[in-house]
Design goal:
about 220 residues, alpha+beta, 4-stranded mixed β-sheet, Glutathione S-transferase family protein, Glutathione_S-Trfase, Glutathione-S-Trfase_C-like, Glutathione_S-Trfase_N
């Protein structure tokens, strides 16, 4: 049995959980707070970041969400999430990188630091200016998602892919932290509502992070 080291609001771990859920891969969650820099965890991943997947029986350790996703794409048949032509697969990977890099550094990362890490680790209030900038950036990113949904069935093309799972993982964390204003984003809202209703997504919506409470609508499929 695989073990997945993560914490509830890690967007990169959520991406992997959605992928494993869609592919029907079993795993056990192991709670890890990477900011604590536990020696045992740093021994697994010197970078000290989640997610990390471990199969103790085989002595196998997988590190980095994209490397983990590619591993299961190559080793689990069916429900391909990096699919289609070479051009399609390139577009999927482009959008995965866009959410993991741009959206994370402008939206998810600042929200996690201000609303979660500051409270749990530093016992400090959030910076209102930083929160406003993150929410402004989120709105701009959702404008682009609206555009994609206007022109495609799913973010990267005709079928659901890792791009959709990655986007939903980051947006779900930002939404939990109160960083998403859904006003004027009906296209993205409809796409996200469909993903929230999938069995792979429901366990994520039921989880809570200590001290940090999500908006009341957070779990609702129709919000």
């Amino acid at each position: 049995m695989w073990q997945l080291y993560q914490f509830p609001l890690c967007p990169f771990s959520r991406k992997i959980r959605l992928l494993l859920g869609e592919k029907g891969v079993g795993y056990e969650l192991v709670r890890e707070s990477p900011w604590e820099r536990r020696d045992e965890f740093v021994d697994l991943n010197p970078a000290g970041r989640t997610p990390v997947m471990v199969d103790q029986e085989r002595g196998q350790v997988l590190i980095d969400s994209n490397a983990i996703a590619e591993y299961f794409e190559e080793t689990v048949e069916g429900k391909a999430m990096i699919n289609g032509t070479a051009a399609n697969r390139a577009e999927i990977r482009r959008l995965v990188a866009w959410f993991d890099q741009d959206f994370y550094f402008e939206v998810t990362g600042p929200l996690l630091f201000e609303r979660m890490q500051k409270r749990i680790v530093h016992r400090q209030p959030p910076d209102g200016g930083a929160l406003r900038e993150a929410m402004k950036a989120a709105n701009q990113h959702l404008d682009y998602v609206d555009y994609l949904i206007d022109h495609r069935t799913w973010l990267a093309g005709a079928t659901m892919s890792l791009a959709d799972l990655t986007a939903a993982a980051h947006i779900s964390v930002a939404d939990y932290l109160g960083g998403i204003d859904w006003t004027g984003h009906e296209q993205t809202k409809g796409w996200y509502s469909g993903l929230k209703s999938r069995p792979s997504f429901r366990p994520l919506l039921a989880e809570r992070m200590e001290i940090v409470t999500p908006p009341k609508y957070y779990e609702d499929v129709d919000f």
